[in-house]
Amino acid sequence: MEERSLILLKPDCLQRGITGEIITRFEKKGLKFVALKMLLISNEKAEYHYAEHRAKPFFKELVDFITSSPVVAMVVESEEAIRLARKLSGATKVEDAAPGTIRGDYVIHTSSNIVHTSDSKESAEREIANFFSPDEIVMYEKDIYHWI
Length: 148
What we know:
The chain is globular. The protein has one domain (about 1-130): Alpha-Beta Plaits. The chain contains 7 helices and 4 strands; from the N terminus they run E-H-H-E-H-H-E-H-H-E-H. Helices cover about 40% and strands about 20% of the residues. It has helices at about 10-15, 20-30, 45-50, 60-65, 80-90, 100-105, 120-130; strands spanning about 1-10, 30-40, 70-80, 115. The chain is α+β, with helices and mostly antiparallel strands.
């Protein structure tokens, strides 16, 4: 059964000029992109996105960072899209991110960790609805053999 995940390429990704490289990693894995856009996240959307961290001391830092510069928001779809996107991204804490993962290869500081991926089906549904309207999700069949 196919599932969806939200992926956000955070401000540090765009500022460093590695957006294309990171998108390519998800694409090469075989995840199907069904929505993609660049946007500036409002404080309201950022606070909703990080609501589970509201009581934590780093909440303001999270909101300030994600709203500081444009992000690229994407919705990917595949069997186990959530698990696959998180595995490709690597551990949130930079010291735990394995080489070969996005964070393991590109991140120096945990506070600037380049990418966000949904951590559960419930989170994915809430996060996708926060950044995309239903008419922005494009349904299509992925037919790789037609183009070979």
